[in-house]
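haha ok so turns out i had the wrong file open the whole time. this is the CORRECT one, sorry everyone. sequence first:
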Amino acid sequence: MNLINCQPISSFEPTKNRFGSLVKPTAKVGSVSLIMLLLTRGNPPAWVAGLTLALTMALVTKSKKKKIANPQKMLKKTKDFAGANLREVNLSNANLRNVDLIDANLSGADLSNADLRYANLRIADLGHANLTNADLRDANLSVAYLKGVNLHDADLRGVNLNGANLHNANLRDANLNNADLSGANLNGANLWGASVKNTNLSRANVKNARFKNNLGLSEEVKQDLKQRGAIFENASDEVFGVLTRV
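then structure:
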């Protein structure tokens, strides 16, 4: 398992991106307010102030992204779903290879058996999503929100999970070979049976993360993880060495 240090990623980046989506409506509201103040010489009547407030609320509401009703149909036309609202959609068995899902809202979505190879899911919200048996090889999930996600038996070889939040995630039997989990939050995650050959767990929060029968886990790394708060169950059954799942 690789423990090479990587450059830290700011935990404020998701907030910064979401804040950026409000820049345009905020600028419009500011322009309207400035014009109102100039026309009324800084003393607007009540009805003008009320109209400005209503306009402000309308612009902010309009700026909110609408949920995409039929993403499967849209996939035939575009691979750009950056910032899209895909909350709780059914994308099971979908072909999402190379799709841009940066900053997308996929919370509670069904992505079981989906092909997400090389997909860009940076800072995406995948909280409590179902990714059972999904193929995420070489996907980018850096700084993504994956709290409570189900990644049981998922293929995560070479995936970038640098700085991702995997609190209480289900990673049972997942293939994490050559994955980058540096700086990730694995607090309470279940990694029973996960393959971790050359997995980078440097700076990761592994407090209360549960390990058992992990292929590719050396004794040295095991002791390091224990000191950092990881829990190893049924030590006599654990597998060490350079074995890896095909």
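The first helix runs from residue 13 to 20.
again sry for the mixup
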